[in-house]
Amino acid sequence: MPVPSPSTIPTCRKDLYGGAMSMSIPQSFADVSMLREVPSNQEVFADQLSDQSIMIELLELASDATTENAGKYHYAQLAQDNEAVTSDILSEEQLDTSNALPFLPSNVHASIIVGRQTVAKFNESSPDAHNVVIIYLALIRIPQVTTDLVISHNQPIVLGSASSSTTALAGVGLQAPVAEEGLDSFRKMLQSLKIMDWGLFGETGSG
């Protein structure tokens, strides 16, 4: 069964952090916290049929990264967390937040990085278990609450023959995302992002 094109995948609005935030996420993605413990600063969703995942992460503003370089900084951190064998940045874009993030304050800074990493799941150390993953990463710097909001969408495009993902997806079929369609889908997710309760950041208002 072929995987639907990103542009045709239905989405629904998901409450995040107990309803303090919300964002539209593909309907097929399940809340990982229902299966295992997730850190309180993260929201993680996964689609078992495509081995894709989406993570929303609230981080302290990285003071050792300039606003312009913060996206690259967090992408490098993600590669380190993934124990990536290889990591490349394919493109980077500074966003016009008035259009890209219409529900957030006008003084936020945001960028999108499209990258490619070679990673292995769990403790699968064999080179044949390495998967090639396209990563769409958005860095949203919110200065008034000294927070870097990082949103990433991982889409595997090549599965290693010994990877557990290959077994899990047997008979489903893996369709490499078309770069522009995948990025368009990611942009639409970002455009839906809302913050309803600024108390999430320890603040009483959006400033």
UniProtKB/TrEMBL annotation:
The keyword Transport applies. GO terms for cellular component: nucleus. It holds the Pfam family Mog1. Keywords: Protein transport, Transport. It comes from the Eukaryota. Belongs to the MOG1 family. GO terms for molecular function: guanyl-nucleotide exchange factor activity; small GTPase binding. Coiled coil: none annotated. The keyword Heme does not apply. This is Ran guanine nucleotide release factor. GO terms for biological process: protein import into nucleus.
